[in-house]
Design a protein that fits this description.
By secondary structure, the protein is mainly beta. The protein has one helix at residues 255-258; strands at residues 15-17, 27-29, 48-55, 58-64, 96-100, 103-105, 114-116, 120-124, 131-138, 146-151, 153-155, 158-160, 166-167, 173-181, 185-194, 199-207, 212-221, 227-237, 252-253, 279-282, 288-293, 296-300, 319-323, 329-336, 344-349, 356-359, 368-374, 380-383.
């Protein structure tokens, strides 16, 4: 019985034929394996045939596949994106594990004269992995609309991520999270936690269609006050390369210098470590007002004062700071004598993401009330 021929539509195959009487009938696939042309006779360095070989004093023909660039862009044959890939997902052979098979057929393609080798597991390792996409969903069955979503996208030769695509302030409770990595990762070497010490339990899956790993997990948000909680993730790929180290201020990744091998030395570039890019805003309390006069400082909640007993400032100019780390500030207003009183001293209104305001207004002797309103909570009032 003939051996079973593997699927020749497999996008990862490489082949060449040597059966025609002219060069035009010979064929090599894919074109980037650097064949010798003509009758595809190899010199031992390039892809082609070595018919003068011998094994145990018997003549044999060696089929040589050399200079096979696995980092070539997968769209090379269509000439849409010529050259080398900058991400694993764009390569003709994404990083990961492969089963290598050799198939030999006779010139006349007689199915009874076909050889299929046993598979040999090999690994391809052209890229450093990075955390490509983070989504956080409200807890409950399934995954609904995300409350947080940030990802990297390729623009030419640069990966960009200027900030979260979706960012809704979180409240205390349980959430579902999905982390997508740029390639196949080691399922036994992934850790995720929040900077407040809360660990995140995850389960890693490998998607054969995208050649990427995904981790699904649950995270708990528990904060006594508004906060910016950072996510930390570390992992390694199946070739033991560490996840690209990233910090919150990063908005660009240069793949040619951080995700690929140095063409001169073959050394993997970029720094492996912890991804600290992502953080979640927690909205559980009113804004905070602080003010400093000379060497004395006050903070509200806490020392908010009242209309009957305001905080006494011994100067006419103090530094006021208004903070809301959760949903952000919506408005800050300073009134004379009472809320809505006249004259109105100062007002600041925000429609975008503003989390801190500092001001040093000059106040005549008298009594003033400050009102600071967050975008998602009730206002906070402080009297001076």
């Amino acid at each position: 019985m003939p051996n079973q021929l593997p699927d020749l539509s497999d996008p990862f195959r490489a082949e060449f034929d040597y059966g025609g009487s002219t060069a035009e009938n010979d064929n090599a696939f894919p074109p980037f394996i650097n064949n010798t042309g003509g009758l595809y006779k190899s010199d031992g360095q390039r892809t082609g045939l070595l018919p003068e070989g011998s094994l145990e004093f018997k003549p044999i023909t060696n089929f040589v596949f050399n200079q096979w660039n696995t980092r070539i862009n997968k769209n090379f044959q269509n000439e849409l994106v010529p050259g080398l890939a900058y991400r694993s997902q764009d390569a003709a052979y994404p990083d990961g594990e492969y089963a290598l098979l050799a198939v030999a057929e006779s010139v006349d393609r007689d199915p009874n004269e076909m050889f299929v080798s046993s598979p040999v597991l090999v690994g391809i390792d052209n890229f450093r992995p990075y955390l490509e996409d983070v989504k956080v969903f409200n807890s409950g069955p399934g995954f609904s609309t995300p409350v947080y979503h940030r990802f990297w996208s390729l623009n030419g030769e640069v990966l960009g991520s200027t900030g979260p695509f979706t960012e809704t302030p979180l409240t205390n409770g349980e959430y579902n999270a999905v982390f997508t990595f740029s390639e196949q990762m080691d399922k036994n070497l992934i850790s995720a936690w929040l900077d407040n010490g809360t660990s995140i339990t995850t389960e890693l899956f490998y998607d054969t269609a995208t050649h990427k790993s995904k981790a699904e997990g649950h995270l708990g948000i528990y904060s006594p006050q508004d906060a910016l909680v950072s996510l930390l993730v570390t992992s390694t790929d199946i070739a033991a390369k560490g996840l690209l180290e990233l910090y919150p201020w990063r908005t660009e990744i240069l793949p040619a210098a951080e995700l690929t091998r140095d063409p001169a030395t073959g050394r993997m570039q970029g720094m492996g470590g912890i991804d600290r890019l992502h953080s979640f805003r927690v909205e559980v309390s009113s804004p905070v007002i602080t003010w400093t006069a000379r060497d004395t400082g006050y903070s509200c909640p806490g020392d908010c004062g009242t209309e009957a007993a305001p905080i006494n400032l011994p100067v006419n100019q103090a530094r006021f700071t208004y903070t809301d780390s959760g949903s952000g500030l919506a408005a800050v207003t300073i009134y004379k004598d009472a809320i809505g009183g006249e004259p109105l001293v100062s007002t600041w209104t925000y429609t975008g993401n503003t989390y801190t305001l500092s001001a040093e207004p000059t106040l005549a002797d008298g009594k003033y009330v400050q009102e600071s309103t967050a975008r998602a909570t009730l206002p906070l009032k402080g009297w001076v």
